[in-house]
Amino acid sequence: MRRLEGKYALVTGGSTGIGRAIAIRFAEEGANVAINYHSSREEAEITEDEVNKACRVIREHGCREMVVKANVADETAVARIFGEVIDAWGRLDILVNNAGIQKTSPTEEVTAADYDKVLGVNLRGAFLCAREAIRHFLSRDGGGIIINNSSVHQIIPKPGYTPYAVSKAGVGNLTRTLALEYAARGIRVNAVGPGAIETPINRAWLDDPEKKALVKSHIPIGRAGTPEEIAAVFAFLASDDSAYITGQTIYACGGLTLYPDFRTAWSSQG
Ligand code: NAP
Questions:
Q1: What is the residue-level pLDDT of the chain in tens, covering all 270 positions?
Q2: Would you please indicate which residues are annotated as catalytic (active-site) residues?
Q3: CA 139 remoteness from chain centre
Q4: Domains plus CATH for the chain?
């Protein structure tokens, strides 16, 4: 399927995990893709290698690629990368706000700095990128598309991860508010809410069979998801197949949003 033929997309946090899978899926569908990341992790060399591989795959699909490094929480840096993309390509059609981080800590121990850092990347970053994309979309005919990577924790509380849960709830209303504000001007804004997906953000349980089994036991479908399964939902929302959908969050979570504790009738008298 080449539903994104000739489109130009920017994927934030596209160096690894879900973002990287989205970049590759978009290229499979015919889109030219700019990959953003910040190189915030220690294994920066591994990241560069992964980005180079993703760029090669994009080229193999006959699409153009570019890499625009920046911290999405930094207003000046965000303006710079949009300038770089639009200078190079003359246009942008699809923004994917995917960059995200999480930090775990009992809430009574969360520092203001850590709170600001998580909100800065996950919510301020999504806002700053959306604002730049909207300015560009409004400057030309044809509108545009914004897709935010939210989480099941947009609606499910996550004790021990207060800043993350707050940020994703914010992404939910960022999505709905922008969708309503710009619907009549050809801009569609949606979100994807992944459940537990096998990516580096989950390294705490990925390589530990016992912890992984525990994760699986909570998921109605019985397994964690893959980045490719999430990328497929992004591709749908980026394409005209979703032309009549705006302001929605599609949960791709193996049933995690279905109150899995109610799989058995424990709450009712036999
Ligand atoms: P990941 O593998 O850790 O990838 C995160 C990406 O974001 C990396 O490319 C990272 O690059 C980039 N990034 C981090 N801070 C950044 C910053 N300040 N500016 C620009 N880029 C930055 O995580 P993932 O699991 O693929 O998660 C991607 C998104 O999906 C996140 O928004 C996450 O909340 C959401 N999500 C994931 C899951 C899951 O189970 N995996 C579930 C629900 C939602 P650098 O480190 O090089 O900066």
A1: 899 999 999 999 999 999 999 999 999 999 999 999 998 766 666 788 899 999 999 999 999 999 999 999 999 999 999 999 999 999 999 999 999 999 999 999 999 999 999 999 999 999 999 999 999 999 999 999 999 999 999 999 999 999 999 999 999 999 999 999 999 999 999 999 999 999 988 988 999 999 999 999 999 999 999 999 999 999 999 999 999 999 999 999 999 999 999 999 888 876
A2: 164
A3: 25
A4: 8-253 (3.40.50.720)
Helix or strand run (H / E) with residue 250 = strand 249-252
Q: Which of 15, 103, 168, 201 to mutate to test the pocket of ligand 1 (most atoms within 8 A of CB)?
A: 201
Whether pTM > 0.85 for this model: the answer is: yes
Burial of 6: CB neighbours in 10 Å, binned 0-12, 13-18, 19+: exposed
Cα–ligand 1 centroid distance for 35 (angstroms): 13
Please work out whether the CB of residue 32 comes within 6 Å of at least one atom of ligand 1. no
Burial 47-63 (b: 16+ CB within 10 A, else e): beebbeebbebbeebeb
Cα–Cα distance measured from residue 145 to residue 247, given in angstroms and rounded to the nearest whole number: 11
Quick check: helix, strand or coil at residue 79?
helix
Q: Is the CB of 205 under 6 A from ligand 1?
A: no
Q: Is the dihedral of CA 7, 13, 16, 17 positive or negative?
A: negative
CB 9 within 8 Å of CB 31: yes
